[in-house]
Design a protein that fits this description.
Length: about 220
């Protein structure tokens, strides 16, 4: 007797879970648990995009400016000061980072209810250094710390490194390094599921230094 199921069955279930928003709900629950147990650091938020190959093309794919024009997809992430992914949005690889700032922040609002503190500083690289970015942040009443174009700005000098860490953790999942899915609903499912895994691992790491319980692991890494 052979156990398991066919590829078609797996994809049918995956489409059903994606259409039902299962991963998005899981991501929201993990963020709520993280905020309750440890506390999200929302006073400092970093946003940046990361380009990956989209070998099958599909929705929200475009010519990659860093891969000889081959198909690629950009994942823009808004992360809090603890490197927890809050909001994620996908677009073609040729889309400007600055144009994805608003959608990424809106996605973060949707994931944890938009309960921001009174003062928020958004840390951005030089790709966001233009007037619409400042207008968007001013409309939210937030402060932007943006690297200037043409001026050296090492990533270690500010909080921009936290979103790079979030991208690195999420790209540990091979499905995000090299997209083979064409449907945007499946892509969003994979993004939210990876973000939930990253947040859970980081929650365990932080909780080991905040709490004690029977059977606690000797190491805070998971």
């Amino acid at each position: 007797m052979v156990s398991g199921c066919s590829d078609a069955t797996i994809r049918r279930w995956l489409r059903g879970w994606a259409d039902a928003g299962v991963a998005q709900q899981l991501h929201a629950l993990v963020l709520a648990a993280f905020d309750l147990m440890v506390g999200l650091r929302l006073a400092d938020v970093a946003v940046d995009g990361c380009i990956s190959r989209a070998v099958a093309g599909g929705e929200r794919a475009g010519p990659s400016p860093v891969d000889w024009g081959n198909g690629g997809r950009k994942c823009s992430v808004a992360a809090d000061g603890r490197r927890v992914p809050l909001g994620i949005v996908a677009a073609g690889a040729n889309r400007r980072d600055a144009l994805l700032l608003g959608p990424a922040l809106d996605a973060a609002d949707a994931q944890f209810g938009g309960c921001w503190p009174g003062r928020v500083t958004v840390h951005l690289d030089a790709g966001y250094d233009w007037a619409p970015t400042r207008d968007l942040l001013a409309g939210r009443g937030w402060r932007g710390r943006i690297a200037r174009r043409g001026r050296p700005a090492p990533i270690q000098t500010g909080w921009r490194w936290v979103v790079e860490a979030s991208h690195a953790w999420m790209n540990d999942f091979g499905r995000l390094r090299r997209y083979t899915d064409r449907r945007v609903s499946i892509i969003g499912f994979c993004h939210d599921l990876a973000a939930a895994f990253v947040a859970v691992r980081h929650l365990v790491s932080c909780a080991c230094t905040h709490y004690r319980w029977d059977g606690r692991t000797a190491t805070c890494r998971l």
